[in-house]
């Protein structure tokens, strides 16, 4: 797809994957609009960061979760400000209760998850899974007519889960990274998705090896744009 002239190469490179996912989730799958409440789980991830910016650009009220103190501080520095950050790193916060409190008991209109726990805590021992919300929490905090956008490809909804979603008139949509590439008809819509998020400065080619090593050692969660 030809790059629009007003979009610089750095912005295009930095948004082509996570920007595409965020735009697909908020525009095509849920149609975010001013005044709606959006919950972005793991907001400090590359996808979460760009989703927060896009939702705020559309005038939505954004709530985000942080998986560590560093993530919380990063989200609080993010511009534009205004996103409510919920630190879930200690496991002492009831996410559903916090979101209902933030929305006056009405629930969240749009949820963008980063994976969910499908079973009880004792069945999933890894610390990473413990930071993910249980599917019941998401269903509880979802408002009437809400949209749950999930990246959990193995999501299992039991009859009580489906009944609760039915009573709320809520929808569940699956966010597949590759769906745009599978349809030649849809590829032209890439032109609508390249926009201007907040990006770090690109790194020169000679620093690419160091950045890659940091990613491989889980010392960095962000994506980097390499300037040739």
Protein topology:
Blueprint: H1 9-15, H2 18-28, E1 37-40, H3 46-57, E2 61-66, H4 69-77, E3 84-87, H5 95-102, E4 108-112, H6 127-130, H7 135-141, E5 142-150, H8 159-168, E6 171-174, H9 179-182, H10 190-193, E7 203-204, H11 208-216, E8 226-227
Parallel strand pairs: 1-2, 1-4, 2-3, 4-5, 5-6, 7-8
Helix pairs in contact: 2-3, 5-7
Tell me briefly what this model is.
The chain is α/β, with parallel strands linked by helices. The chain is built from eleven helices and eight strands. It is globular, with a radius of gyration of 18 Å.
Give me the secondary-structure category. alpha/beta
Q: Which CATH top level class of the largest domain fits? A: Alpha Beta
Secondary-structure element pattern, one letter each: HHEHEHEHEHHEHEHHEHE
Average of pLDDT: 82
- What is the percentage of strand-forming residues? 15-25%
Domain count, please report it.
Answer: 2
Helix content: 25-40%
CATH superfamily of the largest domain: NAD(P)-binding Rossmann-like Domain
Low-confidence stretches: none
Q: What's the shape?
A: globular
Fill in the CATH topology of the largest domain: Rossmann fold
Number of strands: 8
Pfam families: ADH_zinc_N (PF00107)
InterPro entries: ADH-like_C, CRYZL1, NAD(P)-bd_dom_sf
Protein name: QORL1 protein
Domain Alcohol dehydrogenase-like C-terminal: 48-114
């Amino acid at each position: 797809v030809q790059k629009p002239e007003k979009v610089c190469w750095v912005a295009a490179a930095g948004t082509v994957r996570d920007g595409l996912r965020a735009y697909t989730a908020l525009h095509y799958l849920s149609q975010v609009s001013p005044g709606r409440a959006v919950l972005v789980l793991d907001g400090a991830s590359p996808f979460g960061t760009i989703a927060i910016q896009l939702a705020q650009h559309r005038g939505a009220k954004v709530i985000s979760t942080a998986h560590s103190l560093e993530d919380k501080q990063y989200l609080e520095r993010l511009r534009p400000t205004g996103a409510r950050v919920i630190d879930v790193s200690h496991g002492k916060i009831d996410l559903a209760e916090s979101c209902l409190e933030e929305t006056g008991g009405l629930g969240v209109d749009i949820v963008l998850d980063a994976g969910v726990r499908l079973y009880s805590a004792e069945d999933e021992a890894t610390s990473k899974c413990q930071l993910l919300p249980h599917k019941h929490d998401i269903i509880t905090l979802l408002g009437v007519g809400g949209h749950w956008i999930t990246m959990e490809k193995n999501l299992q909804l039991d009859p009580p889960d489906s009944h609760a979603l039915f009573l709320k008139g809520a929808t569940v949509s699956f966010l597949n990274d590759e769906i745009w590439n599978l349809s030649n008809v849809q590829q032209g819509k890439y032109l609508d998705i390249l926009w201007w998020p907040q990006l770090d400065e690109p790194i020169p080619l000679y620093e690419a090896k160091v950045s890659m090593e940091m990613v491989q050692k889980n010392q960095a969660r962000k994506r980097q744009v390499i300037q040739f």
